[in-house]
Amino acid sequence: MIALEIKSKLPHGAIKEIAQRTNLSTSTISQVLNSKTKSPQLAEILKATAEVLKEFRDRERKALAELDMVLNEETPDELTARLNHQQEKYGEGSSPLL
User: Fold this and answer.
1) Disulfide check for 78: which of 31, 43, 70, 74 has CB 3.0–4.6 Å away?
2) Which domains are delineated in the chain?
3) Cα torsion through 74, 76, 78, 79, rounded to 10
């Protein structure tokens, strides 16, 4: 049952990536993750699966952070207002971006 739960969390293309990392066929990986067969390389398959999931989640977090940054960027009017406030507060020629 745990193997099916793991498989449901894998991103598209993960089985192929796991197969490449373990030098096993995609059908072997799929059968192991569907609990249809046991493999002497189970530990290696699980390690590769964990690596693929970690890399996917890291890429996903980075993409979400970048998206959040873009979505929360200042509009031109907001930027102008902030720059004007910085100049008023710190004087002409100050660097508001630092």
Assistant:
1) 74
2) 2-90 (1.10.260)
3) 80
